[in-house]
Amino acid sequence: MMPLQAEPAARAIAKPGESVEIAPGVHWIGALDPTLRTFDIILRTANGTTYNSYMVRGTDGVAIIDTVKAEFADDFFARIESVARYDEIRIIVLNHLEPDHTGALPELMRRAPQAKLYISTRATAMLKALLKPKEDKGPLAFETVGTGDEVSLGDRTLRFLHTPFLHWPDTQCTYLVEEGVLFSGDVFGCHYCDTRLLNDRCGDFRFAFDYYYAHIMRPFKTHVMDALKLIEPLPLKTIAPTHGPILRDRPRRYITRYRELSTASFADKIGNEERSLIIFYMSAYGSTARMAEAICAGAEEQPGLRVSLYDLEGGETQPFVDLIESADALALGSPTINGDAVKPIWDLLSSLAVIDLKGKLGAAFGSYGWTGEAVRMIEDRMRGLKMRVPVAGLRVKLIPTDEELDECRAFGRDIASAIASGEKGRVIDFAELG
Amino acid sequence: MAKAKITFSDIDQTVNVPAGTRIIEVSEKIGAGIIYGCREGDCGTCMTHVEEGWNNLTEPSVLEEKVLRENMASRHDRLACQAQILGDCKVKPA
């Protein structure tokens, strides 16, 4: 791997040991991690990431907003020391307690013992788990804050926005009222490392922005929408996230993009009143395929239900994940091979963690030769993914007969009625949830 | 067996459940917006606001009370992984 820091870009804005002023009295004091290629196991990055933290100076002291990953603490402290003394720090705001933003916190608290921590109302347990305070050292000096709470730095005011589940329960945003700077935590962030640091100076990072959203924020779309209601009315000059470029040029574009990405699944709905069922199958000898077709035919008899049928062998996983996100129900068909469902089924099921599956219906079916475990295993996985499985799975031994195909059509009708029964206003019996 | 109705107001859905069922057993399958973490009363992620029927849930345990306090719970907030439904109630994510 090339040591990218050896030759900083000629137009570098972030230089070793120097902070970067992004607004009057507001400095970036974060760290660059250009050689990182995989973040948190699940995310890839083609040019590393940044751990952004910020310092705000007021007439009545200094605030530090978030810290950096522990391995980069030296860079962070060097940048703090370029603009402030530790005894000036009165306030440490933690917008998110994940270790990539709190790694340098214990050392910062040691160097600035007078500083008080400000965390969201949902972060207390996490803070204690992170710092493991010892009782003989006295209680931790922290305050929990919610939307509208403020803390003053004299001529500067930090106002807090409670934005939980973006992407942990503890997450919040902090708004510097006088300068219109939103310290947004991971919201509006991305894994993209560029020494030019500012969105109007660095390379094209739009793909990284969307990719980050897709993997980090997408499972929490409802919470994104709630947060946008708090953020959109703010006068904004700059969005300062904890990863990736600082968004000072037309920051509202990024808010608009979040709204687009969060509403996409609703807009993708095929009709306001229409419900949808997606049937996927894999078939070795055509038997599971014939079952799938019969199930599709049965389900289609239900008015107001759009049924789609796909052979998993013919597609890539990602577009199928998008389809499932906007569907009401998912039926999966797999033969049993060596006592298991086949790999493409598991590949699809293991790709669904990035979408919200709560309340969706699941069903499983398949033909088998002599053991037939696949159907039950798929149902168990669907339940593990918090889906309802209201109709018991259907298995057919080897080639389906006409009678068995009738059973498949009935199975399709049963799934369709279960989808229809989920309509609002109707009292559902617990036993129906499966 | 005694039954009770729980309404999830964020999705406008009501489920008829056997008395004694925990909220967690119902909410995900019906698609309510409550999010769970540890599922054992420790993390406080599943904090839920009880809009109606506060007295129709089991009393919070000492441990649940502690977690609710730590998470700055307001009056009539409960942990959905702990609270058992005894009578009709209406809840939403806190």
Automatic annotation (TrEMBL), chain B:
Residues that span the membrane, as ranges: none
Any GO molecular function: 2 iron, 2 sulfur cluster binding
Residue span, 2Fe-2S ferredoxin-type domain: 4-94
Pfam families given in the database record: Fer2
Highest taxon, organism lineage: Bacteria
Name by which UniProt lists this protein: 2Fe-2S iron-sulfur cluster binding domain-containing protein
Species for this entry: Thiorhodococcus minor
